[in-house]
Amino acid sequence: MNKIYPRRVLHILLLTVVFSIFFSCSAFNNTETLDLKKRIKKITLDNGMRVLLLKRQGAPVFSAQIKVKVGNVEEQAGSYGLAHFFEHLAFKGTETIGTTDYAKERALLDQIFKIGTEIVNLKKQKGDAAKIAALVTQREQLEAEQKKLVVNNEFMQIYQRHGSVDLNATTANDFTTYYVSLPVNKLELWAYMESARFQTPVMRDFFTEVSVVAEERRSRIDNSPVGLLYEAFVDQSFDQSPYGVMVVGPAADIQNYTPAVARAFYEKYYIPSRIVVSVVGNIDIKETEAIIRKYFSSIPAKEDPKNNFTHENFDPKTFPRKKVLTGPEQPRFYLGYHRPAHPHDDDIIMDVIQDIMCSGRTSRLFKQLVLDTKKASFAGCYASIPGARLDNIFTFYVMPLKGHTNSELKKDIETEIEKLMTEGPSPYELQRVKNSIDADLVYSLQSNSGLASQLAFYESLTGSWEYIYTLQDRIHAITADDVKRVLKTYFVESGEVAVYYELDKTSY
Question: Cis omega before residue 343 (within 30°)?
Answer without folding.
Answer: yes
